[in-house]
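Below is a filled-in request sheet from our internal design queue. Each sheet records the structural input a requester submitted and the sequence that came back. We keep these sheets so that new team members can see what a complete request looks like end to end.

REQUESTER: design group, bay 2
PRIORITY: normal
MODE: inverse folding
CHAIN LENGTH: 115
BACKBONE (tokenized):
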């Protein structure tokens, strides 16, 4: 099994920045992908940013140019740098790890963008 530990959520003003981190541990097999999903009130959980074990990235259209997903050089981990945050970015952000077709999820961290 894979365990995911998230950190970095919180309250930030519109236009501000926030950085989320997620570290994976357990039985890790390559290739794998990691990423961040979010669930906003009244919406389904949706992918925000994904990164493969080879470093390829994919972003939701709504966050392109504002969010950056990256890998930690020393750990099986990913960060999500969120800039120019908007109120509509508010939601619960979940770290995701996928290997062998199986999804693993973090507990979720709340991100609230409000003045």
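RETURNED SEQUENCE:
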């Amino acid at each position: 099994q894979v365990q995911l530990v998230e950190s970095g959520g919180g309250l930030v003003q519109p236009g501000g920045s926030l950085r989320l981190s997620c570290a994976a541990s357990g039985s890790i097999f390559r290739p794998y992908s990691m990423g961040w999903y979010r669930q906003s009130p009244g919406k389904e959980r949706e992918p925000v940013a994904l990164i493969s074990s080879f470093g390829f990235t994919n972003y939701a259209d709504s966050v392109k140019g504002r969010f950056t997903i990256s890998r930690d050089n020393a750990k099986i981990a990913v960060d999500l740098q969120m800039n120019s945050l908007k109120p509509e970015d508010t939601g619960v952000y979940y770290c995701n790890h996928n290997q062998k077709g199986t999804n693993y999820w973090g507990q979720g961290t709340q991100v609230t963008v409000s003045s």
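SHEET NOTES:
- The mean pLDDT is 96.
- The chain is about 0% helix and 55% strand.
FILED BY: M.R.
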